[in-house]
Specification:
Helices cover about 25% and strands about 20% of the residues. It has one domain: DHBP synthase (Alpha-Beta Complex), CATH 3.90.870. A hairpin with a 6-residue loop joins strand 9 and strand 10.
């Protein structure tokens, strides 16, 4: 049976954050909240857990995955961030944005877009997410908790437990998180590209 851990969304309890982090360190698959929705999370090098995400979500090989980072210095180990991109990301984070960047050699090939060799980088504005990646000391491999046939990501942790009881190892209950999408910005060229308008403002691109 899946572990179900209630963590305060504003002031997360350290011992419970450590419990979730220990599951990730052990190669497990968790469900956790971000500033836009609930998501799947696991270690970057956990092939079993990332394969479970692909199977649960029925994803194609070309799907764009995201790495949740604690700060920009951590992100720079996995994505090629030029000076202008650095300034833009710094001005918008933490926040509801996903930045598509060229992956570095440190990024496992199975996590990159197979043709473009890119990776999504996120620094969410959510206390639990920030505490989790800080406790881990490494990025979190992530994918939106959008199940096949659903139009939106699951938002109620009790619904999540009912549908994923035997599929994941731990679910973080942080109350209902209304499902929204992050704004996706491409930073692989000289000029930033709006790929998807989501929760984050994009007036700076106009």
């Amino acid at each position: 049976m899946v572990q179900f851990v209630s963590i305060h969304p504003k002031t997360p309890q350290p011992r419970l954050i450590q419990r979730a982090a220990d599951v990730v360190r052990g190669g497990g698959l968790i469900v956790y909240p971000t500033d836009t929705c609930y998501a799947f999370g696991c270690r970057l090098d956990s092939k079993d857990a990332s394969d479970r995400i692909r199977r649960i979500r029925q994803l194609e090989e070309s799907h764009n995955f995201t790495i949740i980072c604690h700060d920009l210095s951590q992100a720079a180990a996995f994505a090629k961030i030029g000076n202008e991109a650095f300034r833009l990301i710094k001005s918008l984070t933490p926040g509801p944005y996903t930045f598509i960047l060229k992956a570095t050699r440190e990024t496992p090939k199975r996590l990159q877009h197979p043709k473009r060799k890119t990776i999504g980088i996120r620094l969410p504005d959510h206390a639990i997410t920030q505490a989790l990646v800080a406790e881990l000391g490494e990025p979190l491999f992530s994918s939106t908790l959008l199940l096949p046939g659903d139009e939106d990501a699951l938002s109620d942790p009790y619904d999540i437990r009912e549908r994923l009881d035997n599929e994941v190892d731990l679910i973080v209950d942080a109350d209902v998180v209304p499902a929204e999408y992050s704004t996706v910005i491409g930073l692989t060229e000289d000029v930033p590209e709006l790929i998807r308008q989501g929760k984050g403002e994009v007036h700076f691109l106009r």
